[in-house]
Amino acid sequence: MLPGGYTSVMKAQSRDEFRGEVVRFAQALGFETVSAMTVVDRGLGSSEFFVVDNTPQAYADTFSDPGSGRRDPVMQHCRRQSVPIVWTRDTYLSSGALDKWEQQAQFGYQNGIALALHMPEGRHFFLGVDRDQPLPEDSHELQRVVADLQLFAVHAQEAALRLFLPDTLQAERPSLTPRELEALRWTMDGKTAWEVGAILGISERTAVLHVNNAMHKLGCASKHQAVLKALRLGLIH
């Protein structure tokens, strides 16, 4: 775990504080630039975007151009999948967009990692980090970096939704049963489903069922997101 952990971003109380935490984490991970984007689909092809980044000023207009994003293989990957993409010059070369890579490379966007979290109710969170240096050649080191970024993204998206979405779009407090709350509390402590079952005196399958029910009620795609959302809503402590 990096210094400062992953949870400090959840304490951000403003857009500037959120941006500061995102930039701090990315640079501690070894990347000069970072972009975090929250997207809320409004229906009928309309979406609302909330973006924080530290893009160099000279590249800012091109970076934010929707037409540029439509040609970007990294962005197109993230629109369709939740699996992180580790990208280099070859990513753009193989997709016929080498000219785009050559343009962005001048500003330090030569290699990077990007991922997206696609959540219920048309909410999405994109996080990408970039640098001009090669990515780690050691596969284990690269996997660690990707895992760090994924875990940070789960925390950051919770803060982003809280800060950027108007009150009318904030999720209501769902009603979880005592067993579902207990299962989430022990999951927060890192217990497996088997361990949760043993602690609560229930089967592993029933423990999984309680966690899955909690995920569904909270509108989350993973148990980690469910724990974070339950914390944010004050359902567990």
Question: What would you say about this model in short?
Answer:
This protein folds into 2 domains: 7-168, Beta-Lactamase, CATH 3.30.450; 172-232, Winged helix-like DNA-binding domain superfamily/Winged helix DNA-binding domain (Arc Repressor Mutant, subunit A), CATH 1.10.10.
Question: How is this fold's topology laid out?
Answer:
Layout: H1 15-29, E1 33-43, E2 46-53, H2 60-63, H3 66-70, H4 73-80, E3 85-87, H5 89-94, H6 98-105, E4 111-119, E5 123-131, H7 139-164, H8 178-188, H9 193-200, H10 204-218, H11 223-232
Antiparallel strand pairs: 1-2, 1-5, 3-4, 4-5
Helix pairs in contact: 1-7, 8-9, 8-10, 8-11, 9-10, 10-11
Order of helices and strands: HEEHHHEHHEEHHHHH
Report the span from N to C terminus: 22 Å
Number of domains: 2
Major sheet size, sense and barrel closure:
5 strands, antiparallel
| Shape by Cα distribution | globular
Strand adjacency order, main sheet: 2-1-5-4-3
Mind telling me the CATH class of the largest domain?
Alpha Beta
CATH T-level topology of the largest domain: Beta-Lactamase
Helical content (DSSP H or I, runs of 4+): 40-55%
CATH superfamily of the largest domain: Transcription factor LuxR-like, autoinducer-binding domain
Helix-strand makeup class? alpha+beta
Can you give the mean pLDDT? 88
Low-confidence stretches: none
The total count of helices amounts to 11
Can you put this structure into words, describing what you see?
It is a single chain. The protein has 237 residues and is an alpha+beta fold. It folds into 2 domains: 7-168, Transcription factor LuxR-like, autoinducer-binding domain (Beta-Lactamase, 2-Layer Sandwich), CATH 3.30.450; 172-232, Arc Repressor Mutant, subunit A (Orthogonal Bundle). It is 49% helix and 17% strand. It has a 5-stranded antiparallel beta sheet with strand order 2-1-5-4-3, with helices on both faces. The longest helix is centred in the middle third of the chain and has 26 residues, at 139-164. It is globular.
